[in-house]
Specification:
Helices cover 76% and strands 2% of the residues. With 320 residues, the protein is an all-alpha fold. The chain is rod-shaped and about 120 Å long. The chain starts with a helix and ends with a helix. The N terminus is likely disordered.
Length: 320
């Protein structure tokens, strides 16, 4: 009876695994593991990725290399045309660093929300599994109350009654048929509880998916607003830096301005491509994290941790 109770918990936990990203292992009990003993399996929920390797394997990496070469060439040409040393120039804001920081902030919020929903589903599954497990045991007890006296009587008669071998064989056949009938009813009850729990957990999982999607939308809207504000600050500072530079020296304004604009456009083109590649990698990391039940994925690991390297899995996604 203990085995059947554990079986229902083991089967139905799959409903949570499909969304939560957490691996649950039910307590296992059978003839080789006495009732009350447990065997708990653990799996790390941390992943790591070599971003440098992933970027170099990205389908658009060669485009990025080409654009950077073009940028270096434009920069060298522009410096040669000016033929002067720029002193006291205000440093330009690194757009890429800001984008990386904002993307990391978004990812951290999504990971936290994902972990919150996963934990809630885990608690719900345990609550229902315990509840249905008790109800299942009660149903089995009712079935056994009916069948056990009959089976015991047939077994006793077959073993002790002074009857012919043919009559004894008939009693044993009748007992085996009743045992099969009892087991079928127990299996049917078990399947009913399985279906009931699966239905509930599927509904709960769907709610969690909707909640996560709404959170993602809100985070993206907030990030867009913040990015626009930061972009205005960057544009203002970059424009001011260029103005101060031009006022500090005498040069061919038209030539330098044209060169600067070309460089800015090239930098923007590189920034857009880098953002696209990073977002693509982040998307595939999120997909694999869910598939591998990972709560977080680290790009830089400074201490020894028990983690799964998903770099090759991400690279494999590029080829699909």
């Amino acid at each position: 009876m203990a085995s059947r109770k554990i079986l229902i918990a083991s089967i139905l936990v799959l409903a949570v695994i499909a969304f939560a990203g957490y691996l649950f292992k039910a307590t296992v009990g059978d003839s080789k593991n006495p009732k009350g003993s447990t065997a708990v399996a653990t799996q790390t929920d941390i992943g790591i990725i070599d971003m440098n390797k992933a970027l170099k394997a990205h389908p658009k990496y060669q485009d990025l290399v080409r654009l950077k070469k073009e940028l270096n060439s434009l920069t060298a040409q522009n410096e040669a045309a000016q033929n002067f040393t720029i002193d006291n120039q205000a440093p330009l804001v690194n757009q890429g660093s800001l984008d990386d920081a904002m993307q990391q902030k978004q990812n951290e919020k999504l990971i936290a929300k994902h972990a919150e929903i996963s934990e809630r589903l885990k608690r719900k599954n345990k609550e229902l599994t315990d509840q249905f497990g008790k109800e299942f045991e009660a149903e089995v007890a009712t079935i056994n109350t009916y069948y056990q006296p009959i089976l015991f009587d047939l077994k006793l008669k077959a073993e002790t009654a002074n009857i012919t071998e043919e009559a004894r064989k008939e009693l044993n056949n009748k007992r085996m048929n009743l045992e099969s009938e009892r087991n079928q009813k127990i299996a049917q009850k078990q399947q009913e509880f399985n279906n009931k729990l699966n239905t509930i957990m599927q509904d709960e999982t769907k709610k969690g998916e909707i909640e996560l999607a709404e959170e993602r939308k809100q985070i993206e809207e907030e990030a867009k607003t913040e990015r626009n504000v930061k972009q205005e600050e960057i544009d203002t500072r970059n424009n001011q830096a260029m103005t101060n530079q031009n006022e500090a020296i005498k040069l061919d304004i038209n030539q330098v301005t044209k060169g600067k604009e070309t460089i800015i456009y090239k930098e923007q083109e590189i920034a857009v491509l880098e953002e696209s590649m990073n977002n693509d990698i982040a998307s595939k990391v999120a997909k694999i994290a869910i598939e591998k039940n990972l709560a977080t994925v680290l790009a830089v690991v400074q201490v020894n941790v028990n983690a799964i390297d998903i770099t090759d899995l991400v690279i494999a996604e590029f080829k699909k």
